Amino acid sequence: MVSTSFTPIASLAGGVLIGVAAVLLMWATGRIAGVSGIAARLFPPYEDGEFAGRFAFVAGLVAAPVLVRLVTGSLPAQTIEAGTTVLIVGGLLTGFGSVWGSGCTSGHGVCGLSRLSVRSLVATITFMAAGMATVFLMRHWS
Amino acid sequence: MAILVQFAIGLIFGLGLMVSGMSNPAKVLNFLDIGGIPAGTWDASLAFVMAGAVAVTFIGFSRVLKLARPFFAERFYLPTRSDIDPRIVAGPAIFGVGWGLAGFCPGPALTALGFGSASAFIFVAAMCAGMVLVRFVAHWPSLTRFVTPADPLET
């Protein structure tokens, strides 16, 4: 494992930016900023005519590091330790589980909790616990 | 115009993921690693991401939802369900395992594509396959006895 330093100020500031984006999306489109829901609806069957807006939102997510690299000439640290097999299994479970459970960290963990949704509270506690249990088994079970 | 605004909102969201450290799977995994508390390797930063984001949305949503309608839409689309069905536990449990394996949740995984690593591309490809699989399963007629057929993608 790679050790990382405790960054409360930067993390709080980043969290505020994420919150601002979620509020702006609600103001603009009237919809929850849930990334799993937005990403999943880029695939058929299409239920409404909002494809272009969702695609633009995802394009913005992907463009953020590109813009940062253009402006500052560098990118923040990113260490991906998982090998190909773990990435594929992790990706499948993340995609399936987040959509099956109607949301991920953003939809349930941020938007849902701030709306005091009981379903989102149950979901957030569950994915946090499952994530912690998985990391515990991977790192400390030997 | 609405499209450009949504691109800009995605950009702000992505910048938030980068500034906060969520775009670094190592940091996410160190946050989830409560077994690392005794050794001092636990990274509590991500609790601050959630605190900042929830505080802003808590105040912001209550203001925005007082408006008659969104700027670019007819009405607000808010989830209304409050029942606890098996899916609201099983889905997040499956997602949590995937999150703990690689350290990516959907937002940071998409932003990681812009970092240009092959690993992020592999993860996102698998993630999209998982998402498509749900849509396939949820629309499978014989399964509607077990899952709620109404809006399977409600947040």
Automatic annotation (TrEMBL), chain A:
List locations, semicolon-separated: Cell inner membrane
Q: Name one GO cellular component term.
A: plasma membrane
Q: Which residues form a coiled coil?
A: none
Q: What is its main location?
A: membrane
* UniProt entry keywords in alphabetical sequence: Cell inner membrane, Cell membrane, Membrane, Transmembrane, Transmembrane helix, Transport
**Which membrane topology term applies here?**
Multi-pass membrane protein
So where does this one cross the membrane? 12-39, 51-70, 82-100, 120-138
Its family? Belongs to the TsuA/YedE (TC 9.B.102) family.
Q: What is this protein called?
A: YeeE/YedE family protein
Q: Specify the species.
A: Bradyrhizobium niftali
TrEMBL record, chain B:
Q: What is this protein called?
A: YeeE/YedE family protein
- Keyword set for this entry? Membrane, Transmembrane, Transmembrane helix
Q: What InterPro entries does the database record attribute to this sequence?
A: DUF6691 (IPR046513)
Q: Say which species the protein is native to.
A: Bradyrhizobium niftali
Residue intervals passing through the bilayer: 45-65, 86-104, 110-138
Task: Kindly name one Pfam family recorded for this protein.
Answer: DUF6691
Q: Which domain of life is it from?
A: Bacteria
